[in-house]
Amino acid sequence: MIYVVEDDKAIRNLVMYALSEKGYDVRGFENGLDVVDQVKDDKVDLLILDIMLPGKDGMEILEQIREFSDIPIIMLTARNDEYEKVHGLESGADDYITKPFSILELISRVKAVLRRSDKNDRQHLNYDNIEVNIKKRTVKVDGEKIELTYKEFEMLLLFLSNIGNVITREDFLLKIWGYDYEGETRTVDVHIASLRNKLKNAGLHIKTVRNLGYKLGEI
Question: Which CATH number fits domain 124-216: 3.40.47.10, 1.10.10.10, 1.10.357.10, 1.10.287.130?
Fold first, then answer.
């Protein structure tokens, strides 16, 4: 869902039409009075936000949304003001478009911002109180950083990519230890025990499935 917040009806309708023609779900707002609450309640993928709005201006809306959400936000402005753009970007805007703009440029910017957002989302995996940053290879449980070995981290990633599914010991050996590993499956059990211990209370999410292997989540 893309929200378009623009008080100029002609511009708002044009942007909404162009985005809907490209297959996006779009909702329009003529002012910013209700947008913050709507973002809290709805699943919004992108916000296109005009700066000069009646009631509550775009910069104020941007700052309020950034207090609780990191959804992508593209700002629209009628002024080619460098200070305003810098202030907006430092306040959390993802991109700026100066009016008048072409629809082709707008669509291109929307696609680029959504691609960046999608890439960033894939860098993080979460389950209950477990947070993993794949790029930084960090793990947190209840906000506390947990140190894992290379193989323990890879096992946790495999769990988080297969929530609710059984992962056999052979799967672990094949995907983490490699094709040429000649040891016993017992090594998987040893690493699972260590992983559970390091994850503390979150380790209880790792369930043993008798005669099969393990899974993350309820049996």
Answer: 1.10.10.10
Per-residue pLDDT at 89: 78
Nearest-angstrom CA–CA distance, 211 and 194: 20
CB atoms within 10 A of CB 216: 22
- DSSP H helices, the chain, are 9-21, 35-41, 58-65, 82-90, 103-121, 150-160, 169-172, 186-198
User: Does pLDDT of 56 surpass 70?
Assistant: yes
Tokens representing 19 are: 């985005």
2-120 is classed CATH 3.40.50.2300: yes
Six token digits for residue 216? 């993350």
Question: How is residue 174 written in tokens?
Answer: 């094949």
**Strands ordered across the beta sheet of 130-133:** 124-127, 130-133, 138-141, 144-146
Q: Is the pTM of this model over 0.90?
A: no
Indicate the burial class of 164 (C-beta count within 10 angstroms; 0-12, 13-18, 19 or more). exposed
Q: Are strands 73-77 and 206-209 parallel, antiparallel or unpaired?
A: unpaired
- The whole-angstrom separation of Cα 131 and Cα 138 is 8
Q: d(Cα 153, Cα 158) in Å, to the nearest integer?
A: 9
